[in-house]
């Protein structure tokens, strides 16, 4: 069987196995939700949609990002428990809470939120890695119990990532790259995603993606995953 036939077979299997869609479901699961019905856009939501996750994963990985959280509170005590514990996790990641306060009034527009919080992460990947951590999963229930919903905006502080220079924005719109996938899943940074590092959705197709059967998915092989996520 030729190399091109092998490639087509692997791609066909990925499509039939649902691994491509599974990557979106996996990313949604990292944030505590599911991909089913997630495309319905709401002013306040508990989870991102798969399309929002794809766009977030495509952001520059070497640039600090500030997440602007506009929160609608359901149970202040529950969310307070979440806030205390998530602060400890943020510190370990090298992230920091820049500002947090109650909203007093809405001057322009019709949306109403109870709390605004700004958190700076060393990069966008740090937020996703936090969501994967056992420590975060253990406290996520307090967030679910404490919130009606929220808006979460990614903002870059550096000049050149906005305003007159659209190069970085254009790059982020190109979709997810193999490098970004490796950064999210290669936990020990050895240049390969092994089976234990792969999400369940990818494990189902692991042998097909691991084209050279060396027990790990390298950067070149991760490109196949990126192509499917980007619809290529």
In short:
With 232 residues, the chain is of the alpha+beta class. It contains 11 helices and 4 strands, in the order αααβαββααβααααα. The protein has 2 domains: 1-42 and 175-232, Recoverin, domain 1 (Orthogonal Bundle), CATH 1.10.238; 59-173, Alpha-Beta Plaits (2-Layer Sandwich).
Describe the fold and architecture:
With 232 residues, the chain is of the alpha+beta class. It has 2 domains: 1-42 and 175-232, Recoverin, domain 1, CATH 1.10.238; 59-173, Alpha-Beta Plaits (2-Layer Sandwich). The protein is 47% helix and 14% strand. The chain contains 11 helices and 4 strands, in the order αααβαββααβααααα. The chain starts with a helix and ends with a helix.
Notable characteristics:
single chain, 232 residues, alpha+beta, Recoverin, domain 1, Alpha-Beta Plaits, 11 helices
Distance between the termini: 23 Å
Mean pLDDT: 77
The value of Rg in angstroms is 19 Å
- Total E-strand runs: 4
Proportion of helical residues: 40-55%
Could you state the order of secondary-structure elements as H and E? Answer: HHHEHEEHHEHHHHH
CATH-scheme architecture of the largest domain:
2-Layer Sandwich
Report the sheet-strand fraction: 5-15%
Contiguous low-pLDDT stretches (5 residues minimum) are 26-40, 160-172
